[in-house]
Amino acid sequence: MSLQSPNDQASRVGEVIGTAISTFQGQCLRLHESPPLGALVRVRAETDLTIYGIVVGAFTDGLDVGARPIPRAADGMEDAEVYHNHPDLALVLRTCFDCLVVGFDDNAGIHQHLPPTPPPIHYSIGMGSSDEVRGFTRTLDYFRMLLGERSLPTEEVLAAHIRCAATARERTVADETAYAFRVRAGREVAALLRDDHQRLITVLQRIRPTAVDERPRARLVGETR
Hints:
By secondary structure, the protein is an alpha+beta fold. 28% of the residues lie in helices and 24% in strands. The protein has one domain.
């Protein structure tokens, strides 16, 4: 199955400013407007190659290398008022986000391993649509890639990603409900972390369905009463 992502311009959230075969970094279109942690994003590298990544972190710093932001709040002026009174901040600061590559689509189908080439620098980064998220998460082989990145808060990132993917199933009529996806994802995580109980529990606790999820509710794999 190959995924199509129409209306790329409307879904654009940033531009690639750093790239490697397994990771890429994007700069947001607007200050403080990063895609959420765990979101599935894409870079259409060529007409027949779309690279998918998961947002694993974000930060805001100065545009000038080595220039550190200084405090601007004073005399009761704080928070949003700082930006209102210093509109130049939007021109000297930037918000960026880091992504872990988890697969690609070459029009022959979805592959959940590293692509043949990295995302091109200065190419647009788009948010994965609900259809793309559902299509990419039909199989969860890429969970192993994410859990293997020990330099990241992988449990937090994976749990956030599972919540994002579940939300994609709430927004449209899907062949799998949000709750069913959480259960399936929990089982996959349980299989991968069967020898690491603490990491497993951390993920399961963070993907537990909330009061608005479907009922009746069964326990997630590995969850205790």
